[in-house]
UniProtKB/TrEMBL annotation:
PANTHER family: PSEUDOURIDYLATE SYNTHASE (PTHR11142), TRNA PSEUDOURIDINE(38_39) SYNTHASE (PTHR11142:SF5)
GO biological process terms held by the UniProt record: mRNA pseudouridine synthesis; tRNA pseudouridine synthesis
Annotated gene: DEG1
Pfam families (UniProt xref): PseudoU_synth_1
EC annotation from Swiss-Prot or TrEMBL: 5.4.99.45
Top-rank EC class of the record's enzyme: isomerase
GO cellular component, as recorded: cytoplasm; nucleus
Organism field: Coemansia spiralis
Keywords linked to the UniProt accession: Isomerase, tRNA processing
Family recorded in the similarity comment: Belongs to the tRNA pseudouridine synthase TruA family.
InterPro entries for the chain: PsdUridine_synth_cat_dom_sf (IPR020103), PsdUridine_synth_TruA (IPR001406), PsdUridine_synth_TruA_a/b_dom (IPR020097), PsdUridine_synth_TruA_C (IPR020095), TruA/RsuA/RluB/E/F_N (IPR020094)
GO-annotated molecular function: RNA binding; tRNA pseudouridine(38/39) synthase activity
Protein name: Pseudouridine synthase deg1
Boundaries of every Pseudouridine synthase I TruA alpha/beta domain copy: 245-365
């Protein structure tokens, strides 16, 4: 039968009628329209192709090289940087990682998906600093061995390469490659690590650059300094007093009263060196904030650089600065808390909120890392354009939510509510007034009966009777807490670790 001139509707009706006819005759086998058409038109049916089993990726065929990655992340959706053990080791670990996601867990998942690593335990991994839950990073650094576009060569080929002027640093013999000679490619010929990983990672985590590094490079121990920022608004704060107190942190001090103690690590040395510290307005560095004016006033940032930091040290330092800024403590409280002989136990206080804290940068010697942001400098700007686009999208979504919340707050504060008249003659009558006007009176009334403690990130605590820091109950001295823990747990439970940045 000639179907070439049939309309689409007529062809559909014909197919439906054939399906019905064949279905009545052979219900067990004739259910596929393709078979019906092939039978009707006297054409051999098409045999479906068999799916080939997935080919196993053999890492032994590819050389490895050690690289460092610089990356950024918004930390508020994650349970810190450090993964929950070996996140890819077992199904149990994967379930833990899925319930409590971490930055490293996402990074390792992307590395494995891109076939850049075979497993976590054999890639000689190191991180620059471990950030807590909620803390973000602008310049976090990790180092590890990854698959390379280089090639294995013989010793004779290596000698020939050197003879024709090839840079000796491009020929390596790492243990990771079984001691075999490897000719590494030029940066523009290497695998596009940044693009590969960013296509796999969630938008909140972005690889910014990569760098070739030597086999002995360690992201933690090779780091010369870490730079943190803490963002806050000036609402109700004396910025000058906070600056005066902040300058007292400068230099090398014992910060045991400005950190969280983990007796399992049995740390006895709490001296850390603060290289630079200042409090500056945000507007100069972040133009998207405009002039930094909002319902909360000008935005500021604590800028802090040091060689290393204790667990929660920055957040504890910021908490004391907030107390000073609110007039609850004098700037001299910093001196008193740094004098660990007279204040030999940490006073009880709540540390500042985690969300405004950012690990802004990690500094290395120029001979150790040379960050590569573009695969083909001067010609290919795809990586930078992609980064800008992704981070702009994140900013746009977050800013939209902030604008909506601001609009709702504006509506609330412009709402009129009944209030008592201030004139004696009409003291019993109620008048309508904007809630913003009433709010100021309510806040004044609250502050007359209780203290308002700012913790940053929009978090505020109210206490009825403020207890001065120097008079608060203190924890036992560090050496006693370490001794009690050691006697109870023993050396077998001790966390074997060296000083590591923990904020």
């Amino acid at each position: 039968m000639d179907y070439s001139r049939w309309s689409k509707r007529a062809l559909v009706e014909r197919l439906q009628s054939l399906d019905k006819l064949v279905g009545e005759q052979e219900p067990a086998t004739a259910t596929n329209t393709d078979i019906v058409l092939a039978t009707t038109l006297n054409v051999d049916p098409v045999t479906p192709k068999r799916k080939r089993p997935p080919t196993r990726f053999d890492f032994a065929n590819f050389p490895k090289r050690k690289v460092a990655f610089k990356f950024s992340y918004f930390g508020w959706a994650y349970h810190g940087l450090a993964r929950q053990g070996n996140a890819l080791e077992s199904e149990e670990k994967r379930l833990i990682e899925s319930e409590f996601p971490t930055i490293e867990g996402e990074v390792f998942r992307a590395l494995a998906s891109c076939k850049l690593i075979e497993d976590e335990s054999s890639c000689d991994y190191s991180r620059c600093g471990r950030t807590d839950r909620g803390v973000s990073g602008f310049g976090q650094v990790i180092a590890l061995y990854v698959r390379s576009a280089g090639q294995f060569i013989t010793d004779e080929q290596a000698e020939a390469e050197l003879a024709k002027g090839t840079d000796a640093s491009r020929i390596t013999r790492d243990e990771q490659n079984g001691g075999r000679a490897v000719l590494l490619p030029l940066p523009e010929r290497e695998l596009p690590y940044v693009n590969m990983l960013n296509k796999t990672l969630p938008p909140a985590i972005r690889i910014l650059a990569w760098s070739p590094v030597k086999a002995e490079f360690d992201a933690r121990f090779s780091c010369r300094s870490r730079f943190y920022r803490y963002f806050f608004s000036e609402e109700g704060l004396d910025i000058d007093a906070m600056k005066e107190a902040a300058r007292k942190y400068l230099g090398q001090h014992d910060f045991r009263n400005f950190c969280r103690l983990d007796p399992a690590k049995q740390i006895s040395n709490f001296e850390r060196n603060v290289l630079d510290i200042d409090i500056n307005p945000v507007a100069a560095q972040v133009p998207f904030v405009g002039e930094g004016q909002s319902a909360q006033g000008q935005w500021w940032q604590l800028e802090l650089r040091g060689t290393a930091f204790l667990w929660h040290q920055v957040r504890c330092m910021m908490a004391i600065l907030f107390h000073v800024g609110q007039g609850l403590e004098e700037p001299s409280i910093v001196d008193k808390m740094l004098d660990v002989e007279n204040m030999d136990g940490k006073p009880e206080y709540e540390m500042a909120c985690d969300v405004p804290l950012v690990l802004a940068d990690c500094a290395f010697d120029a001979t150790d890392v040379q960050w590569i942001h573009l695969r083909n400098p001067g010609n290919d700007f795809g990586n930078m354009a992609g980064l800008d686009r992704a981070i702009s999208n994140e900013w746009g979504q977050l800013n939209t939510r902030a604008v909506i919340a601001s609009a709702l707050l504006q509506n609330l504060r412009s709402t009129t509510v009944p209030m008592l008249s201030e004139t004696k003659e009409r003291a019993e009558q109620l008048e309508l007034a904007p809630w913003a006007q009433c709010r100021d009176n309510v806040i004044k009334s609250e502050l007359a009966t209780r203290s308002r403690i700012v913790l940053g990130g929009g978090e505020i605590r109210h206490v009825r009777d403020y207890q001065p820091m120097a008079k608060r109950r203190r924890a036992d001295p560090v050496h006693l807490r370490n001794k009690v823990w050691f006697e109870r747990k023993g050396d077998s439970k001790r966390v074997k670790t060296t000083t590591e940045p923990d904020d």
